[in-house]
């Protein structure tokens, strides 16, 4: 990869005490690269940014979901009660229950949901893990095709082979690396340009699986992330957007006019991700466009640093 580029500064009491390095690419309406910083051509592991693309692949292979459950299948959900109920609904529709899930057990991402679970003596579980919607959809896709549900996370399982084929079509790039994601499912690589192109395809689609996934994100942002998540706030602030964050500070977004953004912070700091996306959208002029809630968009990109119990600084984008 090329030399890292500073994309954000950490400011405390007016002093720059640190930097974050990363890469960002923005596609124009016609799909060409409008501007970029850093290395946007080398392949990365987009982590959960891949989920909407995996869901498109599963729909093409016979998955029967729509609406809020389609958003949940593409989500890194917060583990709120309605998320867990939705996962159970996906499984029950194909005659399964949560014991069939093979994603790594976890606690809810949502603070309140996690505290409520701990207060009742609960512990980590596969269904509470943020990837359980995706895994439930993978199981449902196996059932629709008569594939073995016991081995669905294997890279050579028919499900994963099919997902890889569709993933390469959407990104227009060959997968060079197959890794294991945090949840245990196969994780396919692509470049930031490839990721942005795939999200652009979702946002521009008028029908079919791509349009279905895009509309699910637009209609059900709380199922696509969580009630109190910055991703949901961004989807509400920018009408028509399709956006998905991933671990290691990955983020991708597309707009209904064909513009798209994909980014990755080298050190994986989660706090930088919303700061960069808000900055990129402002640089694109999105905050001044009709229907956009500029104040809400700005708030999604605010990350405060505290000292002595009060705010003394924050994380500032340099792009």
Could you walk me through the main structural features you see in this protein, from its secondary elements to its overall organization?
The protein is of the alpha+beta class. The chain has a single domain (5-317), classed as Beta-lactamase, CATH 3.40.710. 38% of the residues lie in helices and 20% in strands. It is built from 12 helices and 12 strands. The strands form 3 sheets. Strands 1, 2, 3, 8, 9, 10, 11 and 12 form an 8-stranded antiparallel sheet that branches. β9 (250-254) and β10 (260-265) form a beta hairpin. α10 (230-237) runs antiparallel to α12. The protein is globular, with a radius of gyration of 19 Å.
Can you describe this structure in just a few lines?
The chain has 319 residues and is of the alpha+beta class. It has 12 helices and 12 strands.
Task: Name the descriptors.
319 residues, alpha+beta, Beta-lactamase, two-stranded antiparallel ribbon, 12 helices, 12 strands
CA radius of gyration is 19 Å
Question: How many distinct beta strands?
Answer: 12
| Series of H and E elements | EEEEHHHHHHEEEHHHHEEEHHEE
Continuous helix count: 12
CATH topology: Beta-lactamase
CATH class: Alpha Beta
Query: Could you give a short account of the major beta sheet?
Result: 8 strands, antiparallel
In helices, the fraction of residues equals 25-40%
Oligomer: single chain
The overall pLDDT average reads 97
The CATH architecture category equals 3-Layer(aba) Sandwich
Distance between the termini: 19 Å
Class by helix and strand content? alpha+beta
InterPro entries: Asparaginase_II
Organism: uncultured Nocardioidaceae bacterium
Protein name: Asparaginase
Pfam family, one: Asparaginase_II
């Amino acid at each position: 990869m090329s030399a890292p580029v500073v994309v954000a500064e950490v400011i405390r009491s007016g002093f720059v005490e640190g930097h974050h390095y990363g890469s960002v690419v923005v596609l124009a309406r016609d799909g060409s690269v409008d501007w970029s910083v850093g290395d946007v051509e080398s392949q990365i592991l987009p982590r959960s940014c891949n989920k909407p693309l995996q869901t498109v692949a599963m729909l093409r292979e016979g998955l029967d979901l729509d609406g809020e459950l389609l958003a949940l299948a593409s989500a890194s959900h917060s583990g709120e009660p309605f998320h867990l109920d939705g996962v159970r609904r996906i499984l029950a529709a194909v005659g399964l229950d949560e014991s069939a899930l093979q994603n790594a057990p976890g606690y809810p991402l949502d603070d309140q949901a996690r505290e409520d679970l701990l207060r009742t003596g609960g512990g980590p579980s596969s269904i509470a893990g943020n990837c359980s919607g995706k895994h439930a959809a993978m199981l449902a896709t196996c059932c629709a095709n008569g594939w073995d549900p016991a081995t669905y996370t294997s890279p050579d399982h028919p499900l994963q082979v099919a997902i890889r084929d569709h993933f390469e079509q959407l990104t227009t790039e060959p997968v060079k690396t197959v890794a294991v994601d945090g949840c245990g499912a196969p994780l396919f690589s692509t470049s930031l340009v490839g990721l942005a192109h795939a999200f652009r395809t979702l946002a521009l689609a008028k029908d079919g699986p791509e349009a279905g996934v895009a509309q699910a994100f637009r209609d059900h942002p709380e199922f696509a992330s969580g009630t109190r998540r910055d991703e949901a706030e961004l989807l509400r602030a920018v009408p028509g957007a399709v956006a998905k964050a991933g671990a290691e500070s990955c983020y991708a977004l597309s707009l209904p006019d064909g513009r798209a953004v994909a980014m990755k912070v080298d050190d994986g700091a989660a706090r930088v991700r919303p700061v960069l996306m808000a900055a990129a959208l402002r640089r694109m002029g999105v905050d001044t466009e009709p229907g956009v809630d500029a104040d809400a968009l700005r708030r999604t990109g605010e990350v405060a640093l505290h000292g002595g119990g009060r705010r003394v600084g924050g994380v500032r984008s340099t792009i």
